[in-house]
Amino acid sequence: MIKTNGIASILKAIVSGIFLIAKNKVIISVNNMVYDNVKKVYETTYTTALQTFIKDSNVDNDKLSTLAEMWLCFTELIELTILAIVAIYIKEKVFILLFIFEILAIFYGKRTIDKYYKEEKNK
């Protein structure tokens, strides 16, 4: 699972990074198609990891699942609010920040999932 998550995270980071440097509309279109597919794979590995956390937890699964989803929504709301305020000043360059934050979030999530699986392996 660590290797799968690592590969999916690296692919998503690369594809997200292409949006930062691509200028050609054809490259952006092809990259968008690849991005959609990689995003699905990444979300599947992330969901699998989240389900494993919930399954191995002693807390009520329904409550923990609801809490995890609420936290993700709350975090996205805060991020989008900050980006909307920043966009007032830097206009369309806010998309650069969006992709940079996405890449940082990918690697933070990967590190967290790797840490969990290593702890489980050492038990």
What does this protein look like?
This protein has 123 residues and is an all-alpha fold. The protein has one domain (2-122). It has helices at residues 2-21, 25-56, 61-90, 94-122. The chain starts with a helix and ends with a helix. The model has no long low-confidence stretch (mean pLDDT 80).
Unreliable stretches (pLDDT < 50, length at least 5) are none
Largest sheet: none
| Helix percent band | over 70%
Q: Helix count, per DSSP? A: 4
Order of helices and strands: HHHH
Distance between the termini: 17 Å
Mean pLDDT: 80
General form = globular
The chain-level structural class is mainly alpha
How many domains make up the 3D coordinates?
1
Strand content: under 5%
Tally of strands: 0
Please tell me how large the radius of gyration is.
Answer: 17 Å
Main attributes?
123 residues; mainly alpha; 90% helix; 0% strand
Write a brief structural summary.
The chain is an all-alpha fold and 123 residues long. 90% of the residues lie in helices and 0% in strands. The chain has one domain.
Question: What's the layout of helices and strands?
Answer:
Layout (H helix, E strand, L loop, with lengths): L1 H20 L3 H32 L4 H30 L3 H29 L1
